[in-house]
What does this fold into?
Amino acid sequence: MKLYVTPGSPYARLARIVVIEKGLEDRVEIIAAKTRAPDSPYYQINPSGRVPYLVDDAGAGMEDSQLICAYLDRLDDKPRFHSASHASDWTYLRLEFAARSMCDGIAVWGREMVRPENERSPTTLAHEAARAQRMADFFEDRVSDPPMQGPPGIAHLMLAIAVEMARKRGLGDLTAGRQRLANWMRRMSDLPSMRRTAPP
Ligand SMILES: N[C@@H](CCC(=O)N[C@@H](CS)C(=O)NCC(=O)O)C(=O)O
It folds into this structure.
């Protein structure tokens, strides 16, 4: 299989982590895609031009980290991230999708910041910075609860990726003044799969 990624994409990072966590590294080739470039040859592979994108052994392509992670997780018929119990655990799922929402906002902020300074929208930047702070408060109140403890699930990975991305892209340390989130993040950032996929 081939997994198309960019080094900075949080969603591609999630898929790469699942590849590692599921022991699929010898089955999945990681390929750097050229995104956001006119006439990129990558558009012949994935017309949407987004990453992550997985081409399976039969040559079928699929995009979106949710679909790709679910597919990879179920390859061995022993789903760990998308098990039947997870799929009906609404408390857990609410947290997973809140973490994704937080990540979406930080990704928007990051995208805005790579634009030339005179093209950046201060309104968008302020909106996303405020959202990130609210979501960090939300998780400060929840990371000690049972669903966010125990073996890492997609909710854990998505939140950890989001917090690391905020730090890396200059949005600041969302764990500052949030002791529970800071302690939780220390454990997450130490995971070998998190370390091995850390953006350059
Ligand atoms: N919902 C998608 C989001 C994917 C996404 O936004 N990917 C970005 C990188 S973080 C991308 O490929 N952007 C390139 C483009 O928009 O052309 C997922 O979870 O995979």
In short: The radius of gyration is 17 Å. The mean pLDDT is 96.
